[in-house]
Amino acid sequence: MPPTTPPPPGACALTLPCGTALWLLPGRGVWWPQAGCLLVADVHFGKAASFRHAGQPVPTGTTADNLARLDALLATTGAQRLVFLGDFLHARSGAQPALWRQLEAWRARHAAVAMDLVLGNHDRHAGTPPAALQIALQEEPWAPVPGVPVCAAHHPHAVHGHTVLAGHLHPTVALQGPARDRLRLPCFAWQAALGLLVLPAFGAFTGSHAQSLPAGAQAYAIAGPRVLPVPAPLA
Q1: Whose CA is closest to 165, among 67, 86, 81, 80?
Q2: Backbone dihedral region for residue 86 (phi beyond 0: left; psi -120 to 50: alpha; all else: beta)
Q3: What local confidence, expressed as pLDDT, does residue 55 receive?
Q4: Could you give the angle at the alpha carbon of 147 between the alpha carbons of 219 and 128, nearest 5°?
Q5: Is 7 left (phi over 0), alpha (psi -120 to 50) or beta?
Q6: Which phi and psi angles does 60 have, rounded to 5°?
Q7: pLDDT at 233 over 60
Q8: Do residues 21 and 2 touch, judged by C-beta distance below 8 A?
């Protein structure tokens, strides 16, 4: 059954085997209405700053863009909880005072929203958010709602009897038109046989790999303001 709550604009419904209803959002997040929970993966805060620290000329303003898009998702959904599926911070060199000032001001605006971070590979090396951000740290796989067989993780893997929502892969799908034009879009990747949903990378400066879509996955492409299922076979 599809979710019974009104759909966020451009969202696509996905019902898990356990009956849990989700909305896949064009803003690169998943809205779990029954739990009041918004999930995003791979924000990679401070990535541009870490590149600049290494002497590479990259754009500024990516943190402000990420926070503005999180603001929009929280406003659209009215989420009471925000779960980061790993890789909150990109690298220790990006953990500059200016970044923490921005994040602390943003966190203060959303003081009523509970926040969790499922630790990912970058978090292990870059460090975890400071206590002032009031983000609870969780080990994968972690069940946000006790008694509901849905787990949050960073690394995609199967958990018997559960559906896992994960990140890490930064999935994209390539579409090819009749004039041999090609378009690569970020996507959600649903593997029903494994009970695994991989979210697209949320961060504005994250990139992806050409082979990032798991074999046999159903892709839900983010096409501008809409999320659309991609018919098989994939181009």
Answers
A1: 86
A2: left
A3: 45
A4: 65
A5: beta
A6: -100, 170
A7: no
A8: yes
Pairing state of beta strands 182-191 and 196-198? antiparallel
Distance CA 51, CA 42 (A): 17
DSSP string over 38-49: EEEB---BTHHH
Q: How confident is the model at residue 113 (pLDDT cuts 50, 70, 90)?
A: very high
104 half-sphere exposure, CB direction, 13 A CA radius: 10
Distance CA 71, CA 78 (A): 10
Instruction: List, for residues 120-142, the tens digit of each pLDDT value.
Output: 887 787 678 889 999 999 999 99
- For 9-47, what is each residue's pLDDT tens digit? 999 999 999 999 999 999 999 999 999 999 999 998 875
**Pairing status of strand 150-152 against strand 163-166:** parallel
Task: Work out the angle between the directed axes of helices 62-77 and 97-109 (0-180°, nearest 10).
Answer: 10
Distance separating alpha carbons of residues 198 and 222, to the nearest angstrom:
13
Task: Give the pTM.
Answer: 0.88
CB 115 within 8 A of CB 82: yes
Phi then psi for 22, rounded to 5 degrees? -125, 160
In order, the DSSP letters of 109-167 are: HTTTSEEEEE--HHHHHH-PPPGGG-EEEEPSSB-SSTTS-EEE-SS----TTSEEEE-
CA 64/CA 205 separation, integer angstroms: 12
Neighbouring CB atoms inside 10 A of 57's CB total: 6
| Amino acid identity, position 4 | T
